[in-house]
Every structure is written in C-alpha cells, then in structure tokens.
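For the sake of transparency, this paper describes our internal protein records without simplification. The tokens are whole numbers drawn from a learned vocabulary of local backbone shapes. One such record is reproduced below, unchanged from the form in which we store it.

. . .
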Amino acid sequence: MALALGIAVLRGESFPLPMDLALAAVAGVLGAIGITALYQGLAVGRMGVVAPVTGVLAATIPVIAGIVFEGLPAPMVVVGIVLAIVAVVLVTRVSDETAGRSGLELALVSGVAIGLFGVVISRLSDGHVFGPLTVVRGFEALSVIIVVVASRSAWRPPRRLLPTMAGIGVADMAGNGLYILAVQAGTLAVAAVTSSLYPVTTVILATLLLHERVTRSHAAGIALAAVAIALIGLGSV
C-alpha cells in the first residue's frame, strides 16, 4: 500500500474518481477473498485440484468479460487465448495421488474471486493506476484484519520472513500495476489471459533455482504458452 501511494505521487496521478474508489474497494475485498481461499485450499485440499481450477477460472472470467465489453479479438488472438488457457491447466497440474478432501469448493471461490478482481480493476479510469491500487491494498488489509480479529488467528510472522514478505508485496504490486496499464493500453481479454500465464514463470524458476523436475505436462504447458504468446502478439499488431 505504501509503495502504491508513493508511485502514485511520483507519477502525479490525480485523486481517484468516486467510481474508481468504489471499484477499488470492491476489488480489495475480492482480492482478499481470492488469495485467502487459494492458500486455504492448497493447505487443506489437493493441489492437483485447487491449482488448475483456480488458474482456469482466474483466466477465463476476465477473458469472457473482455469479449462482452470489447468484442471478439482477431482470430489469431482467439486461438492464442484458447492455447493459453490450456497451457495454464497443464502447467498447474501436479502429481497428486492423495486421498481426502479435494478443496474444490475453495478453488471455485478463489478462482471466481480472483477472476472478478481482474475484471473490476480493469474498469478503472484511464491514467488512474497506483492511486486506486492504494485503496485496493487498504481494503485487502482491512478485510484480513477483520478475519484475524474475528477468528483470533495468530498473525505475527517470524521476523526472519519480513524481508521476503516485503519482496512479495513489491512483486505483487508491480504485477497488479502492469496489468492495469496493459488493460488501459490494449484489451482486457489479451491482458487477462497473458497475465494468467504466471504459473509458467513459477515452474521455470522452480526448475532453475530449486532444481525441481519438469514433468511432461509442465513442458507441454510451457511450450503451449510460448506459442500462445506469439499468436496473441502477432494477432494484436
């Protein structure tokens, strides 16, 4: 939140319009619900169910909204979007043979909330990016605080994790800000599905830094993602 406010001041953004404030408040609540449900689903359910369902819903809901708001993209872009969604499914698949709770209901909540989050923040007024994101982060923090107080959950993280958490905050803010700029510069469908390919980056980093093995599913997903990005890029020219 502090980072977003500082960037908004440096960019000389005007104070958010009333509609932008309302959209930011809604997006903040949706973001808090989506991330909380995702982490809870991964903790108590099966990753092989939670990750793909969340990823697909988070990608397809903004794409559908973009087509409704802005019309159908060029045929090559449509093919790229379809391939990108398939790539998300392949890359988020994990070997999961465990029995027990699937976590499907949490995945559905998470996917819908994150997908709607992407739609809502895409409706911000042109030129207003980090000012509204400051409000988004404020409402996310307020939502989490309310849940923590109501459930009396433990909330103090180990001090050694604070630098990592700060880094995550910076990266997350950068992702949200660039997503809004992409929507304002192009179309919602293209920005949404391209940004939804972030699991590809996760898999590649896990391979390079953690030396995790790339499965055939992951390799196919990475290849499809590359083809999808190329098609979307060529079709958007």
